[in-house]
Structure formats: structure tokens, C-alpha cells
């Protein structure tokens, strides 16, 4: 692989198998500058993020101009069960309670967000892409909770397969969302626990990624994976995608949770959200009753915390 010193421009041809760790540091022989080399493994999520799949010689850059004030947020983590869907739903409903116009996009084949919003079996982005003159607005549904929804269904898996084979998959969502951005203040996208087609499409359509994680050791890997994808997207494609880590399902009774929380605070300093969402049985109960927290038990701790999260997001200068 060819690496170039960012300071003096000297190019080196190095066998990438010499690097045993991710993101190794090297010293330029000529100017002594020390810099990080990003080794992107073939067929990894980072390779897709860099646009190095499908034999592409150069990454595709954002083919659209987005002049709207609408803020698009992807909620993502390669780990499952870390509160992605719960965060999308409750953050979206809390923003709507502050008077914001919110579109929730279910971009996960499991369609949990769609089910929680009582639209099981509705047409999805798969159907939008199936017709050349389809208008995205026609597929957006209203809900009982002042948020709009672009649903998902199991056919979404076919969409990924088809477009990944064709190699034209990266900006499908970004291009379509442009149509409806003037109608919304916030678009919040729920993603599956992977770094594939869906997460990449979502990140490439977004201004900000919120990465929920539990305050436990094994969850930290998932956070690092997404941050690597974001770094590669910004470096290779010229995006200015920001990210924030959200500690969710926090249990202060557990010593290890406090240790990891302190670790997260020092590791992600400016990128860790102040709001911490605690482990609260009301979240699971609200799913059973199929209502967002604000409509199920607005005085619950988690409902209040999601309201704080909405306020924190409103105060962020994302665009
Ligand atoms: N703050 C919380 N307190 C308690 N349970 C939670 C909390 N957030 C999520 N859960 C529960 O954890 C499980 C996974 O949450 P979910 O939002 O579906 O995660 P993901 O979308 O990342 O897979 C669900 O059963 C949900 O009810
Ligand atoms: Mg989910």
C-alpha cells in the first residue's frame, strides 16, 4: 500500500501485512513527522465507508447539495441491544414535544421502530426504490405521537442485496431524503447492529451520529467501530460528519458501570453527551404498551432523561 506523509508529502510503498494493530503510527524518515496510518481491510465496514468496495478506484463523494436547515441524525452501533431503537423513538418524540417537526426513518430490516409505531407491514424504502417516479413523501406515515415515520419491512433486505451487487448503493437514502428535508426540523434514522449497507447509507445521509452504548466493557468495541467508519468517511469522502456517544441503560448500582463511565468521559471528552439514560423498567413497559415514554409514563426517570437529551441536541451546533 502507498502511504503519504501529510506534512512533507513523501510517499512510501509499504506492505500492509507489516501492520499488526489497527491505526498504527509511523514516523516519516524525511521530516520525522509521526502520523497515523489507517489500514482499511478489504470487505470491512471501513472499506465500504472508504468507497473501496466493488472495485472502485476512488470513493464517491456526496453527489448532492443540502442547503436545508434540517438536521439528520443516525443512531447507530454495531452492537445489538444497546438502545438504538428506544433512543430513536424517545428522542424523536421528545423533540416533537418541543415543537419540532420530526421524521423517524426505520432503516433496520427488523422493523422494530415501525412496529412500536403501529405500522407493521407498511410500505418501506424498498417500495420507494422500486418505482422510478416514486415520491418519498407519499411513503411517510403519520403516527399518534406527533412524529412522522418512514417505515421498514422485511423486503428491505432485498434492497441491500440488489444495490450492493450493482455497486450504486451508498447515497440512495441521502438522495431521497433531500426531497422531504424542507418539511422537517429533524430526521432521526434507526439502524441495524452492523456496519453494512444500511448503516453506511444512513451515515452518508447524516450530519450527526449518536452512538448509544451501555456502560460495560464489551460494548466499547462497537463504539470504536462506528467511530472508525466515521473517520474514514470524513477523510476519504470529504464529509463533515460529527458524532456523539450516548451512555444508555446505565445502572449506577454496578461498580463496573461507574468505572466504564469514567473511562468514557476521559476517552471521548468533547464527544460524550452529558445526558446519561439510566436503566429504567419504564422503557421496557412502554414497549409492551407500544407507546413512547412520554405517552406511557412521562414522569419516569428515562422519559425525563430523553427530554434532557432532546434539549442537549437542540443546543448543539450540528450544521
Ligand atoms: N434505558 C433503558 N432501560 C431499560 N431497558 C432498556 C433501556 N433502553 C432499552 N431497553 C431495553 O433493551 C432492549 C434493547 O433495546 P433496543 O432499543 O431495541 O436496542 P437496539 O435497537 O440497540 O437493539 C429492549 O428490550 C428495550 O426495552
Ligand atoms: Mg433496534
Question: How would you describe this protein?
Answer:
With 319 residues, the chain is of the alpha/beta class. It has two domains: 2-39, no CATH class; 71-315, P-loop containing nucleotide triphosphate hydrolases (Rossmann fold, 3-Layer(aba) Sandwich). The protein has helices spanning 45-50, 84-97, 112-116, 125-129, 156-166, 172-177, 197-204, 220-237, 255-268, 281-288, 293-296, 301-315, and strands at residues 2-4, 11-13, 25-27, 34-36, 71-75, 102-106, 141-142, 147-150, 186-190, 208-213, 242-250, 272-278. An eight-stranded mixed β-sheet has the order 7-8-6-9-5-10-11-12, with helices on both faces. Helix 2 crosses helix 12. It is globular, with a radius of gyration of 20 Å. Adenosine-5'-diphosphate binds next to helix 2, strand 11 and helix 10.
Topology, element by element:
Layout: E1 2-4, E2 11-13, E3 25-27, E4 34-36, H1 45-50, E5 71-75, H2 84-97, E6 102-106, H3 112-116, H4 125-129, E7 141-142, E8 147-150, H5 156-166, H6 172-177, E9 186-190, H7 197-204, E10 208-213, H8 220-237, E11 242-250, H9 255-268, E12 272-278, H10 281-288, H11 293-296, H12 301-315
Parallel strand pairs: 5-9, 5-10, 6-8, 6-9, 10-11, 11-12
Antiparallel strand pairs: 1-2, 3-4, 7-8
Helix pairs in contact: 2-12
Bound molecules: adenosine-5'-diphosphate (ADP) and magnesium ion (MG).
Magnesium ion binds at residues 84-85, 108, 112.
Amino acid at each position: 500500500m502507498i502511504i503519504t506523509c501529510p506534512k512533507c508529502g513523501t510517499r512510501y510503498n509499504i506492505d500492509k501485512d507489516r501492520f499488526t494493530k489497527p491505526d498504527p503510527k509511523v514516523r516519516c524518515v524525511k521530516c520525522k513527522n509521526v502520523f497515523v496510518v489507517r489500514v482499511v481491510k478489504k470487505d470491512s465496514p471501513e472499506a465500504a465507508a472508504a468507497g473501496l468496495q466493488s472495485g472502485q478506484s476512488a470513493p464517491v463523494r456526496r453527489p448532492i447539495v443540502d442547503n436545508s436547515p434540517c438536521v439528520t441524525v443516525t443512531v447507530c452501533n454495531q452492537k445489538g441491544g444497546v438502545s438504538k431503537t428506544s433512543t430513536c423513538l424517545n428522542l424523536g418524540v421528545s423533540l416533537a414535544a418541543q415543537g419540532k417537526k420530526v421524521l423517524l426513518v426505520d432503516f433496520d430490516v427488523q422493523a422494530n421502530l415501525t412496529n412500536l409505531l403501529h405500522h407493521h407491514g407498511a410500505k418501506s424504502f424498498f417500495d420507494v426504490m422500486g418505482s422510478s417516479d416514486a415520491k418519498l413523501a407519499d411513503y411517510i406515515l403519520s403516527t399518534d405521537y406527533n412524529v412522522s415515520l418512514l417505515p421498514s419491512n422485511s423486503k428491505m433486505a432485498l434492497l441491500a442485496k440488489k444495490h450492493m451487487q450493482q455497486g450504486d448503493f451508498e447515497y440512495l437514502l441521502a438522495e431521497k431524503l433531500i426531497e422531504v428535508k424542507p418539511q422537517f426540523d429533524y430526521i432521526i434514522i434507526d439502524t441495524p447492529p452492523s456496519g453494512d449497507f444500511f448503516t453506511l447509507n444512513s451515515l452518508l445521509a447524516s450530519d450527526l451520529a449518536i452512538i448509544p452504548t451501555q456502560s460495560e466493557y464489551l460494548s466499547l468495541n462497537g463504539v470504536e467501530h462506528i467511530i472508525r467508519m466515521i473517520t474514514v468517511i470524513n477523510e476519504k469522502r470529504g464529509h463533515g460528519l460529527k458524532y456523539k456517544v450516548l451512555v444508555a441503560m446505565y445502572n449506577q448500582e454496578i461498580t463496573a458501570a461507574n468505572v466504564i463511565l469514567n473511562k468514557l468521559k476521559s476517552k471521548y471528552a468533547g464527544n460524550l453527551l452529558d445526558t446519561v439514560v439510566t436503566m429504567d423498567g419504564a422503557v421496557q413497559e412502554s414497549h409492551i404498551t407500544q407507546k413512547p415514554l412520554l405517552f406511557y409514563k412521562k414522569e419516569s426517570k428515562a422519559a425525563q432523561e430523553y427530554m434532557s437529551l432532546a434539549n442537549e441536541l437542540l443546543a448543539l451546533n450540528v450544521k
